[in-house]
Amino acid sequence: MFTTLISPAQAESIIGENIAATSDEMIALEHSWGRVLRAPVVADRDFPPFHRATMDGYLSREPLRVGQTYEVRGALLAGHSMMPLSSQCPVEVATGASLSDADVHLAPYEWTNKKADGRIEVLQPTMAGQFIHAQGSDATKGDVLLTAGQLMGAGEIAIAASAGASNLRVAAKARIALLTTGNEVVPHETVPEPWQIRGSHAPMLRAILHAGFYQNITSRHVGDDLQESINALVELRGLADIILITGGISAGARDFVREAACSLWGAPLYHGIAQKPGKPMAFWNGPPAVFALPGNPLSVLATFSRYVIPSLCRMEGRECRTQFLTISSTQAAHAHLALLLPVKASNGACQIFSNSGNLIAARGVCGVVEIPPRNAMMPPSPARAFYPYQFPSP
Q1: Among 151, 102, 160, 154, which Cα is nearest to 131's?
Q2: What percent of the chain has pLDDT over 70?
Q3: 176: which strand partners?
Q4: Using CA atoms, how far apart are residues 246 and 389, in angstroms rounded to an integer?
Q5: Which of 33-42, 83-92, 308-317 has the lowest mean pLDDT?
Q6: If 0-12 CB within 10 Å is exposed, 13-18 middle and 19+ buried, where does residue 28 land?
Q7: Which domains does the chain have, with CATH numbers?
Q8: 162-188 pLDDT tens trace
Q9: Cβ neighbours of residue 20 closer than 8 Å, sequence gap 6 or more
Q10: Nearest to 138 by CA among 29, 45, 40, 41
Q11: Residue 12 — pLDDT band, cuts 50, 70, 90?
């Protein structure tokens, strides 16, 4: 085991070539925040659908001249049908009012002085079309407003609503199964015996997944037992698109995850990555796809951030961008292994700490920085890929 280690980039490539896209589903527009479109949203009319005033003021067919006074006749309000304009007298106009013509003159209130008799004096010259949002100037009927692959946020939801898209075709969210392992692990809400520890993997991963709008999550825990592990995987493979296993994947005498998974899916596509922590990580393409992560809590966070979050994004067809931060503390690179180190970030710089066994030091952790192997001390520098453990937000 681990005789041939692959690089993190090779592991990512193998996952990408073997991970299946999720299906489509229709959802109501108001539930689409953070979801990924699978079908475009097309304009069902021009945007804006009419020539509209963008300022409150006075509207005229002819230029409104500085120093001249005008009698105002009538008012043009938002939500009312268009009215013809007189060539002699301006009308009062409200922001958002529909206009029959874009080639008109609008003097905002601030450009006028209203007399006691109701007439107005113009203080600044007007230009035809100024303060007019012309029909179709943003988009015309039939234009694609939102493309497939678009991550829906507030602006995208507003655009879809304006186009009358009350239901959207989006990427379905993957069903996820969490399988934690270990005889020493008990539920976090219980009081452990002196030789036991509370399980932190499932609460941590469930919280991150819920933040990414993954709701269909099944959790199971097994002890260090081969048949118990097989039975759990048999149950979970029918309930999930992705199975995440934590612990039991190393080379210990009581590590049964590989044997259990191999009994169902054959040999893993890889088992062992030239990285620290997370060297024993393994992957099966299933179905369902299986990620076996090492058991240390910060190792789980590091490998989940580096491989699982990008994979879930890929399944939905959305991009999971890495960031580039300046490293504010000197960190020795490993001669042969990539380092996946937890980081705390502030103002574009990140501070690294390398003790993956120190769970308490995880306070303030916001992601993982990957440091390539090399025989040198790494001074503060940019251009280091940073993997936030949160899913990309709209």
Answers
A1: 102
A2: 91
A3: 217, 242
A4: 17
A5: 83-92
A6: exposed
A7: 8-26+172-316 (3.40.980.10), 30-46+140-171 (3.90.105.10), 51-133 (2.170.190.11), 323-388 (2.40.340.10)
A8: 999 999 999 999 999 999 998 887 788
A9: 241, 287, 289, 315
A10: 45
A11: very high
Alpha helices of the chain — where are they, by DSSP H?
Answer: 8-18, 154-162, 201-211, 226-237, 257-265, 297-303, 309-316
User: Which of 207-211, 216-220, 243-247, 356-360 is predicted least confidently?
Assistant: 356-360
Rounded to an integer, what distance in angstroms lies between the CA atom of residue 100 and that of residue 91? 13
pLDDT tens profile 80-104: 887 777 767 899 999 999 998 999 9
What is the rounded CA–CA span in Å between residue 76 and residue 60? Answer: 11
- The DSSP result for 147-215, as a single string, is -TTPBP-HHHHHHHHHTT--EEEEEPPPPEEEEEE-TTEE-TTSPPPTT-EE--HHHHHHHHHHHTT--
Distances (CA, A) of 346 to 306, 367, 368, 378: 20, 12, 14, 19
Q: Taking residues 310-336, report their average pLDDT.
A: 79
Closest to 305 measured CA to CA, from 364, 368, 256: 368
CB 171 within 8 A of CB 38: yes
Residue 300 CA to residue 278 CA, distance in Å, equals: 8
The string over 201-224, giving b where at least 16 C-beta atoms fall within 10 Å of a residue's C-beta and e elsewhere, is bbebbeebbeebebeebebbbbeb
**Strand bridging mode 120-122 / 69-70:** antiparallel
As a whole number of angstroms, the distance between CA 64 and CA 62 comes to 6
Contact, 197 vs 184, CB < 8 A?
A: yes
Cα–Cα distance, 44 to 171 (Å, whole number): 23
Nearest to 368 by CA among 333, 323, 315, 320: 323
Cis check: omega of the bond before 288, within 30 degrees of 0 = yes
181 close to 223: Cβ distance less than 8 angstroms: yes
Q: How many other β-carbons are positioned within 10 Å of the β-carbon of residue 320?
A: 15
Strand partners, 378: 331
d(CA 377, CA 342): 18
Identity of residue 252:
G
Q: Which two tokens stand for residue 121?
A: 């004096």
What region, left, alpha or beta, does residue 129 occupy, with left being phi > 0 and alpha being psi -120 to 50 degrees?
left
Which of 181, 190, 177, 180 has the alpha carbon at shortest distance from 216?
Answer: 177
